[in-house]
Design goal:
Length: 241
């Protein structure tokens, strides 16, 4: 047996849930099947009521939301949520837009939205990659400054062939990543460029503004995007310890 299932969210504790709840009730959603929460919508991963709603969906159910931004704040999250709803055999009804993914028109709109989102990500990747390359060509910083005495020691230990990279790093008082950078500079530079591209894409800014993150000077946990853009702090690169 199919059911109407509602979801509503407001961002702040001072905001009222009643307006959205009334809209869902008016649309026929039973009171006991409305999932509501007061929490930021920046990410779908930190919303327990949303997760509970998605988990409750069964074949033939219809998920009803008052407004699109109450469900998702960006296209990627929306597409992921719609995919979860579809995989459960349910459909999504967005009341203020009149979009229902259970109809051919609704499915078409979501498909177009997905294509636009994919194109946007592609453009962002290309722009960020070019920005990093130009930054490097103009002499932009690529990691920590070399230390001649330490680097000579690393090369000497490696030339002896008796030590692993972990042992060299411990002896030289540095990280294995530094050993890799000294012994394989060309490969390390390519990896560094890829890391920088991922970082600046995530931070939403181009290189050359503020401090560039380095593995030798890692940021503190909880750093905000505003702090990054102002050069007051940095975010770690993905995959860098």
């Amino acid at each position: 047996m199919s059911h109407l299932v509602g979801y509503h969210r407001v961002s702040h504790t001072s905001q009222c849930l009643e307006l959205g709840r009334e809209a869902l009730l008016k649309a026929g959603v039973p009171e006991e099947r409305i999932y509501a929460e007061k929490i930021s919508g920046k990410s779908k991963d930190n919303r327990p009521e949303l997760k509970a709603m998605l988990k409750s969906l069964r074949e033939g159910d219809e998920c009803v939301v008052h407004k699109l931004d109450r469900l998702a704040r960006n296209a990627q999250d929306l597409l992921t949520i719609v995919e979860s709803i579809t995989n459960a055999g349910a459909s999504l009804n967005i009341l203020d837009l009149g979009i229902n993914t259970g109809t051919p028109v609704g499915k078409m709109i979501i498909t177009v939205l997905g294509a636009v989102s994919e194109l946007e990500r592609s453009y962002i990747n290309d722009r960020t990659r070019l920005g990093v390359q130009r930054y490097i060509e103009k002499g932009g910083k690529m990691g920590p400054k070399p230390k001649s005495k330490r680097d000579k020691k690393i090369k000497a230990l490696a030339a002896g062939g008796q030590h692993s990279w972990a042992e060299i790093a411990e002896d030289a008082g540095c990280s294995k990543q530094t050993v890799y950078r000294v012994l394989s500079p060309e490969k390390a530079e390519k990896h560094r460029e890829a890391d920088m591209t991922r970082y600046y894409k995530k931070a939403g800014k181009m290189p050359g503004k503020g401090k560039t993150p380095t593995s030798a000077n890692p940021p503190k946990r909880g750093t905000t995007t505003m702090e990054v853009s102002e050069g007051r702090a940095t975010k770690p690169y993905p995959g860098v310890n």
